[in-house]
Design brief:
Helix content: over 70%
Distance between the termini: 28 Å
Number of helices: 1
Number of strands: 0
Number of domains: 1
Strand content: under 5%
Largest sheet: none
Shape: rod-shaped
Structural class: mainly alpha
Radius of gyration: 10 Å
């Protein structure tokens, strides 16, 4: 979601979750 700032924020949250999961391995 890059059209709405809120959607972009949620996208960053999802990316953060994924990165955390990967780095925790």
């Amino acid at each position: 979601g890059s059209l709405v700032s809120r959607s972009a924020y949620y996208d960053l949250q999802l990316v953060h979750e994924i990165v955390t999961a990967i780095t925790s391995i």
